[in-house]
Amino acid sequence: IFNTIEKKYSKTKFEGEIIWDENKPEGTARKLLNINKIKSLVWEPEISLDEGLDLMIKEFKKDLKNGTCRY
Questions:
Q1: What does 8-63 look like in DSSP terms, one character per residue?
Q2: What is the pTM of this model?
Q3: What does the alpha-carbon distance between residue 14 and residue 6 come to, in Å, rounded to a whole number?
Q4: Cβ neighbours of residue 71 under 8 Å, at least 6 residues apart?
Q5: How far is it, in rounded angstroms, from Cα 66 to Cα 70?
Q6: CA 47 to chain centre
Q7: pLDDT at 66 over 80
Q8: Are 13 and 61 in contact (CB under 8 A)?
Q9: Tell me: the pLDDT tens digits for 40-62?
Q10: Which among 11, 16, 50, 69 could disulfide-bond with 64, CB atoms 3.0 to 4.6 Å apart, if both were Cys?
Q11: How many angstroms separate the CA atoms of 6 and 10, rounded?
Q12: Using CB atoms within 10 A of its CB, is residue 53 exposed (0-12), middle (13-18) or buried (19+)?
């Protein structure tokens, strides 16, 4: 989660402070993802995480400008 948040803030040039509540668990200590089943169906993601973040930020800015943002 931390790495994804860092990427998002880096892409938006966020200069504030990120405050983490270390008293709350982040979830399981180690998360394992097995993508063998989906790959056996010949599925591949169409965009990367970075591309997805870029698209999300672009759409958010557009919606914010147009007054159609639901946050």
A1: HHHHTT--S-----TTS--S-S------HHHHHTT---SS-HHHHHHHHHHHHHHH
A2: 0.59
A3: 9
A4: 60
A5: 11
A6: 13
A7: yes
A8: no
A9: 888 888 999 899 999 999 999 99
A10: 69
A11: 6
A12: middle
Q: Is 27 left (phi over 0), alpha (psi -120 to 50) or beta?
A: left
Q: Which two tokens stand for residue 63?
A: 């919606």
Count of positions (residues) in the chain: 71
Side chain identity, residue 37: K
Cβ atoms of residues 59 and 66 within 8 Å: no
| Residue type (1 letter), 33 | L
The contacts of residue 3 (CB under 8 Å, 6+ apart) are none
